[in-house]
Write a structure and sequence with these properties.
single chain; alpha+beta; about 25% helix
Length: about 100
């Protein structure tokens, strides 16, 4: 994690894996809805000083999707609340095609 990485994960390629997800959404010819899941660290990651969640919001908006405005407050879920037998927090983003 960030604590062990000498660069604070600023150079970690995984910060940009959401771009691969965007490519898949495009290839699927812009479905009506998508579900994107990730680790809670995505909410605080800021490689190059730009929060990843802002990059995600902008990229999905440009692709034609609406997502919730405040991801920090509205996209973090404890999976134990949904039947998973362990406390595991995950970020879940649901995107709706603007059309």
């Amino acid at each position: 994690g960030r604590v062990r990485d000498e660069y604070g994960m600023q150079k970690d390629y995984r910060n940009y894996l959401f771009e691969s997800y965007l490519k898949i959404v495009k290839k699927l010819e812009l479905p009506k809805v998508f579900v994107f899941e990730n680790v809670p660290g995505i909410l605080s990651a800021s490689p190059g000083g730009v929060p990843i969640i802002e990059r995600i919001r902008l990229a999905f908006d440009e692709l034609g999707y609406l997502i919730v405005d405040d991801l920090r407050s509205n996209a973090l879920f404890n999976m134990a609340d949904y039947g998973i037998p362990q406390n595991r927090k995950r970020v879940i983003i649901i995107g709706l095609n603007k059309k």
